[in-house]
Amino acid sequence: MSQEKGGKPGPVAQEQQPEPILPEQLFAAHTKKQIHPKAARAVAAGLIYVMGEILNGAYALRVAADADETGAKEIQPRQVDDAIRSDTELRRLLSAWLLERAPATRSGPQPVQQSVANTPDGALEESIDRMMGTINPVETVTLGVSAKSTLAGLLAVLMEKVMDAADVISTRTSSNVIYTEDVRAAVKVMLMGEMRQLADREISSATA
Q1: Are 15 and 157 in contact (CB under 8 A)?
Q2: For 51, which of 60, 87, 108, 151 is 20 to 30 Å away at the CA?
Q3: Mind listing the pLDDT tens digit for each residue in 77-93?
């Protein structure tokens, strides 16, 4: 590893730093409070876990599809929709999203949600790509453009849910800072059953 004088990493070492799946700056748009660094890691861990469940479900549905089906190598919005509907806990968590969004089978572009519009251009899509890379590193299945747009909108909705809940919980302690425990409590309010336990475990690991 290349190092400069004083023990600071040189340019080569800096280039080797992996891009975080969910950069902390994405969360700042959803609160006027300061976010403790560990709390930001907690938000990222919780969101990555839930989105991973959805992506894994959509991936499995895509792999199981007939090989001669049109777009069989691409995940489509209907697989995202079906992955949520087929899981009791995801369906409960995202029932309002399922009711309010346009049908997932529609091939045209999805309407831009306000929570998506408030994030840097392409930031959510880039995060979705990084998540997909951890599930499918050899790219045997890819994300269709419409599916990526759907997932980016879904990520924005979940991010807003977590941050709004954490903001309210931190207000109860008269704090102007969102801490890890605020995020952990917010995630526990959002999730139930096994998902709650597994998400909390991911948060604990990320903030240890």
Answers
A1: no
A2: 108
A3: 999 999 999 999 999 99
Burial of 3 (0-12, 13-18, 19+ CB in 10 A): exposed
Backbone angles phi, psi at 53, to 5 degrees: -60, -40
Kindly report the pTM of this predicted structure. 0.80
The β-bridge relationship of strands 142-143 and 74-75 is parallel
Per-residue pLDDT, 72: 54
- The DSSP line for 45-98 is HHHHHHHHHHHHHHHHHHHHS-TTSTTTTEE-HHHHHHHHHTSHHHHHHTHHHH
Query: In 42-57, which positions are buried (b, 16+ CB within 10 angstroms) versus exposed (e)?
Result: bbbbbbbbbbbbbbeb
Which CATH homologous superfamily contains domain 36-207? Histone, subunit A (1.10.20.10)
Domain residue extents for the chain: 36-207
**What are the helix (H) ranges across 105-144?**
114-117, 123-135
CB burial of 168-192 (b: ≥16 within 10 Å; e: otherwise) equals ebbeeeeeeebbbbbbbbbbbebbe
CB 189 within 8 A of CB 165: yes
Q: Give the integer Cα–Cα distance in Å for 55 and 90.
A: 12
Distances (CA, A) of 148 to 54, 135, 139, 176, 191: 12, 15, 15, 34, 24
Burial category of 124 from C-beta neighbours within 10 Å (exposed 0-12, middle 13-18, buried 19 and up): buried
